Amino acid sequence: MNRPEMIRVEHEGVVFWTDPELAKDGVRIAFSERSGGVSAPPYDSLDLAAHVGDDPLLVDENRSRFLSGVGIAGLRDSLITAEQVHGDVITLVGTDDSGRGASASAGSGAAALRSPVPQTDGLVTKTPELPLMLFFADCVPVILAVTDPVPGVAVVHAGWRGVLSRIPEKAVHALIVATGAESSAVRAYIGPHIGSCCYKVATTLAATFNETFDTIAAVEDHLDLAVAVRASLMDAGVEGDRIAELGACTFDSADRFFSYRANDVTGRHGALAVITKD
Ligand SMILES: [Zn+2]
For the whole prediction, is pTM greater than 0.90? Predict the structure, then answer.
């Protein structure tokens, strides 16, 4: 298997990062940028999240544009999202969960049954044609994929709390249990997040990261979450050369990505993964 690599793609006006080689194996992934949507400032323009104050109808249009750009417009109604709480819970979803949280404008009554998967920061599936999407503005998006013996994907929301409670590692285990894959066969993708250049934390927290992961994740009060994510993934058995990193700092590139630390009230970009065939 080749080392996973991501390329930047613009399709139908939407810009995202993906791995074309993985797509050939029946798994499509994408990290969105913020251009190509319909939301007005401060959510301009491809805001994908329902919970940050944007107009839900515009968010739904943005989600449709993103999925269409990625080439899965036909799976729009099957989209699954989650209520992210900076925890470490991973939820395995299947056919019965199809469409949960697909619509940002879903209200009460029958539509409430289609609300996002509650209290979950990681979604896992081995069911084809169920797109999983989580939302980000500085936190680390992580996508995991396997193709053997059966395809499987995981999408993970990893802020500092989640990383410290080893949510990347827990997601690898959940994916392995679901699919029967070897951990060494897992391909991992670390998306756009705030870089250590712009991420200052309390020195005690920085020290805790270095102790927890037995690596240099923090230098003084600058924390590199990707280093800790990588360590957590490798503790779960993922090979270092099967981890791809996008490498952009959301704070520095707040024109291309949403950054909570840069803008406070802002939108969310997305991490999306879907099995396109058996
Ligand atoms: Zn930076």
Answer: yes
